[in-house]
Amino acid sequence: MLTATYATIAIATEQDKTRNMLCRLQQYVETAWKSLHNLDLAFLDTAFGKLTQFDRYFRSRKIDLYLIPTLQGVNREADIIITEIAGSSSKAGSVLRSVGEQLGSVFEFRSAKANELFHSMYMYCRHVSVRIEREEKELLPLSRRLLSVDQWFSIAAQFLADDATGPGNRHGHAIGSSSSSSSRSSRSTINLH
After folding, report:
1. Is the pTM of this model over 0.70?
2. Where in the sequence does UniProt note compositional bias of the Low complexity kind (predicted)?
3. Buried-most residue among 29, 35, 46, 157 (CB within 10 A)?
4. Distance CA 77, CA 69 (A)
């Protein structure tokens, strides 16, 4: 049962970290949106870079890599919840791709376009927030109820192996490093920690 406790604590810790990062990201987007008249293209590019960086982190969380694959096919209720939260992720990803495409058309940049971009960035944050809330209120309690001790042991072993690879190896490529986008030649990323 200690392995289930370890896995649950590891997931809860990661959820807290994710929620805090998302909160800071939402504040950043909201502050930028409120000061839209003073905005420049570099600021929009930075905001998009932060969203992209967070999205990479979000999609590489332990809950996505280990818990959800273990829960898939356990029962119909689990499959429904997994499908629904995957829908939130899909919506968030679509919004983020749309922001990247819109940002790519910088020569047509106007105040109305910036307003539309920030609304899309806000919607990305909202979709992620909905997913996190559903994970915490539905998916995690369901997993505690449905998974066997052996399954929790397997998940915990994967967590430990993941943690043993060293800090930053799983998330390091997305947080605090440089990345590139197909629509832009280069983009700096900002550390969200």
Report:
1. yes
2. 177-193
3. 29
4. 14
